[in-house]
Amino acid sequence: MPAKKTAKKKAGKRRGPSAAFMKPMQPSETLSEVIGSRAMPRTEVTKKLWAYIKKNKLQDKNKRTMINADEKLRAVFGGKRQVSMFEMTKLVSKHLK
């Protein structure tokens, strides 16, 4: 009778965000008008963006995954009036060094 295979646990599995997401990034001048000019991790950039979006009621009322850009965000979004929340992260990453 063959021996049963046992499931191996992955060695070194990390908990929490990866080091790449925790590295402080410097926002561009355009993005700093929305979130501030100090360097911060990507996770913090996302939190500040969502705080700005909610404070200014920029989330689309009908389709909640869409963000309606005001003047400041339109500059960050490359001139687009509306972007999805998934596209937003891609567009914002261009403004981080």
UniProtKB/TrEMBL annotation:
InterPro entries: SWIB_domain, SWIB_MDM2_dom_sf, SWIB_MDM2_domain. Residues 1-25 are annotated as: Disordered. Residues 1-16 have a biased composition (Basic residues). Pfam families: SWIB (PF02201). CDD domains: SWIB-MDM2_like (cd10567). Residues 20-97 form the DM2 domain. PANTHER family: SWI/SNF-RELATED MATRIX-ASSOCIATED ACTIN-DEPENDENT REGULATOR OF CHROMATIN SUBFAMILY D (PTHR13844). This is DM2 domain-containing protein.
